[in-house]
Structure formats: structure tokens, C-alpha cells
Amino acid sequence: MPDIFGVIADATRRDILRVLLERHQQDAEMSVSEIVGQLEISQPTVSKHLKVLREAELVTVREEGQHRFYALDPEPLEMVEDFVIPFLSAGFDTEVTVEYLSEDGDRVPGPDGDDPFGNPLEDDEVLSEETAAAAERIGRAAARAEHRVKELVARFKLRT
Q: What pTM did the predictor assign?
């Protein structure tokens, strides 16, 4: 697989990815001629760049007769996101205070064995496997959301 950073370094390929992203959000594909028309560049140029994007597994292709339809596969870009996010969030001091509440709104112990206020738990208070797995999924989702917010804040600061 080609180096994804080299693949997306080219402005024309990024333009093609942007066009395909619009269609991806509509859960649709795009023909080569549609890409040519939208970007106003030659068909051989578009085809050359689509080949590079295909080899990098950033797009998928479906052939129908003589026509080829392309769709974005954003999964490989997650590697870029994982690499870039720490740089975008550098300099942001984020302090998160977590408080666990019951359905009634009462404070309850957190998953680390102590309650959020430093009081040790009783030995018989342990999270079930299902609850621990759910907490882990929630934690990962929260971490992704935090990174996304930091990224958006960084982009906003760059524009102002």
C-alpha cells in the first residue's frame, strides 16, 4: 500500500476526495465523467489520480459496462487522523472532571475502584463485565469526541 501521506499530498487527489466525500455523505457513487465535469480537469488526469487513490484503498470502483463508478472509502484516512490530532490539540490544556451519578442523581463510585471524591469502595462493589465493556466503549467514544472538538477548535483558531 502506498504511503497515504504522499497520496493525499497532491492537491488534485484531495479535490477528487472532496468531491467523492460529498457523494459519500449521500451514500452514492460518482462516475469518472461526473468527476471530470465537476473539477473541470481532463479525463486522463482524473483517471491517473483515481488509480493512485484506488491503490491506496481510498476509493472503491464498480464497473458497469464501459463505465466506472467510484466511491470514497474513508477508513484509511483514520490513520492520518490518528497522526494529526495530537498536533492539532497541542497546547490545549483540557481538564476533565468526571462525576458518576445514579439514575436518581446521587453520586456513585467510578469504575477505577474509588469514588470520584477519594473514598475507597467496599470489596464487594465490582462492575459486571457488561457494564465494564459499556464503560470502555463510552470512554473511547468520549475520547474520539474530545479529539474531534479539539480539532475543530484548532481549525477555527487558524481561520481567525
A: 0.56
Distances (CA, A) of 80 to 19, 39, 154: 19, 24, 16
All cell numbers assigned to 56: 491506496
> CA 66, 64, 4, 38 torsion: positive or negative?
positive
Angle at 51 between CA 47 and CA 52, to 5 degrees: 120
Task: Convert the pLDDT of each residue in 14-28 to its tens digit.
Answer: 999 999 999 998 989
What percentage of residues in the chain have a pLDDT greater than 70?
A: 76
79-101, pLDDT tens digit by residue?
888 888 777 766 665 555 666 77
Q: In what order do the strands lie in the sheet with 59-64?
A: 30-31, 67-72, 59-64
The C-alpha atoms of residue 80 and residue 9 are separated, in whole angstroms, by 12
Considering just the CA atoms, what is the radius of gyration of the chain in Å? 23
DSSP secondary structure code for residue 27 in this structure: T
Mean per-residue pLDDT of the chain? 81
How many whole angstroms separate alpha carbon 154 and alpha carbon 146? 12
Alpha carbon distance 50, 160 (integer Å): 34
